[in-house]
Amino acid sequence: MTNRIAVQRASAEEAGTSAQPGLLKSPRGKPVNVLLGAAGLLTVALILQVLAPLGLVRAQDLPPSTDILTAFFQLLGDSSIWQAVYDTVYVWAIGLAAATVAGVLLGLLIGSLERLRKALSSTVEFLRPIPSVALVPLVVLLFGPRYESALVLVIYAAFWQVLVQTIYGVADVDPVVTETARSYRFTKLGVIRHVVWPTALPFIMTGFRLAATVALVLTVTAQLIIGTPGLGRDIALAESAGANARMYALVLVTGLLGLTVNLLVRLVEKKVLSWHMSFRKDAEE
Prior knowledge:
Distance between the termini: 33 Å
Structural class: mainly alpha
Radius of gyration: 23 Å
Shape: globular
Largest sheet: none
């Protein structure tokens, strides 16, 4: 019961955080937060610009922001950067899709069977905290420095986010509603479709959103450590060649990719949960 309350509270906070336009707009509807965000980025750029001239850091270690931006715009005209972005997005998307499908299916199964949930709870809690990077030696031995190695790490890391949230979502189904559906002769598939799925879906979308971020982090980390093609490997190559401005420009590209992924996932979440009370309330405001 304590876990359920905590999960409900966490889910409500997650949903509230993702669906409060008030955080993005002032009471008059102006995108004040966007301007504040731009001001924050500008402040960081100004600080980076003066660190080296003030002698606080070496210019070759942390170039001024103008040098980084110059390298960034040069990168945009280089076809290799788009191939690296494609390789990163490819591993991220395949890994996230596989982890989501597996997590949802197993989560629905485990969450629907109380004895199975109790039997596997300790196993899940044991495996879930294991960092994916700890599995790097194993996947390199099994697959070598190839796409498959990064893919396994991404699936492993993202899978637990979706699985745990799905189990919590199924456990949150009101037993009275379930019994009422059965009294109306709903089949097992009908109960899952009309009772379990609508209740679990907000939890699943929360897990999907968390998994999307984790999957991108693990994709770049795997490319950085293992050397599979992508942004992570390009960052490592730039660092080893001493091209620090290019390295920071690649980090900037990775950050923009992460921002894009986050925006897309939130749009998907808003679309899928458009019927949910919190999103409907936000749409009416």
